[in-house]
Amino acid sequence: MLIETYPGKEENMPAKCVHSCKGLCNALDIAQHRERESIQEYKRFQAECDYPDVRDLLSQLIREREHGLELLAEKRRMLDAKFDTLDRITDSFR
Fold it and tell me: Residue 3 pLDDT more than 50?
C-alpha cells in the first residue's frame, strides 16, 4: 500500500493508496507521524492549562494516542515479518 502524498500541510495532505509497496507502507509512517504531532500538541495544551478537569482529559488523550503509536508499531513489525516470510517463500521457488 503506497500512499502518494502531495505538497502542503501534512494534516490536509490527501493520500492515495496505489497498492504496490510490499512492506514499505507509507500509510503507517503518516499515521505514526500524526499521532506524535497530536501528542505534542496535547502536551503543550496541558502545560498551559490550569483547570484540573481539562488537564485530566488531556492526560487521557495523550495516553490513548501513545497506545495508538504502540499499536501502529506492533502492526509494522507484524507486516515486516509477514513480508519477510513471503519473500523467503518466493525466493525458495527461484
Answer: no
CA angle 27, 19, 34 (to 5 degrees): 10
- Where b means 16+ CB within 10 Å and e means fewer, 40-71 reads eebeeebeeeeeeeeeeebeebbeebeebeee
The strand pairing partners of 38, in sequence order, are: none
66 close to 43: Cβ distance less than 8 angstroms: no
C-alpha of 66 from chain center: 10
Cβ atoms of residues 3 and 31 within 8 Å: no
pTM for the whole thing?
0.67
Q: Confirm if 81 and 65 have CB atoms less than 8 A apart.
A: no
